[in-house]
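<instruction>
Derive structure tokens from the sequence
<data>
Labelled lines for chain and fold:
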Amino acid sequence: MIPTSIKGPDEIAHVQAVVLTWNGAHLLPDCLRSLEAQTVPVRIVVVDNGSSDETTELLAREFPNAVHLRLPENIGYGRDNNEAIKTALDGGAELIGLINNDVTLSPDWFEKLLAAARVRPEFGLFCGTLLFHDRDSVNSTGLTMDFFGRARDRDFRLPLRQLHRPDGPVLGVSGGAALLRATMLRAAGLFDPDYFAYYEDVDLSLRAAALGFGSYYVREAVARHRFGATFGPGSPRQRYLLGRGHLRTLGLHQPLGKALALVPLTMAYRAVIKAPLDLLRARPRHALAELRAAASGGLSAARALVARVQR
């Protein structure tokens, strides 16, 4: 079952795939070939946020049908994706797939999610089963959140043979591979530009849910992810961005009283516990990342809280 608006090749603009890349010429071929192999027609837009590698030459040589949206500099996952999403919306796209350059899709990934989108009009965000690239274990089946407002990939590292989760609602979708409904984006807005990377998908999912656009998981829509290929898993840069995004999301989305308690506690935990532990483990760059996350994330969360109190 495919929405009638995208059955014919003349209607390809109604479904667009946005692939964000930064110096990812070594990753793009597998990703884009998987998009070209989809069982439904999809318009491919590559957002190149200031790459200095051979991305331009690669696209011209091997993927001439992909639209190359070249930006002058790397301004972050959210802002860069927003540029392509605006273009897609202006062009009449009804559904937009966000695909990381380190992700490859099964041939029917779009078909499975489009079928769900057709029969579940009340949902605005869709995701499938995201596996690790090199093994049959789960990277994500959507997002969950614990008491402390920390977002996690659901079923993370669960062996695929043990995954028995049915299709159904989920708290949010991972921005690594997701399908977004245009009506949801027009109502909830695009990615918050204050997030450089990480937690922007959490924020969008929660904003959409507050307006009645839920997130939905489709088990058979399978993709594979080279986890951490962009920033490096566990790197200081990743640690900083995750910590900062967590704090901002606390300030924006937790109940006000809880947020007022959790923000300073989380800042203290990172600065007083996590940073010294990293120093004891001879990881000064990780310790600095924790201190920077506490300071920058705390400031961003404080601004969000002030805005909420003033409303």
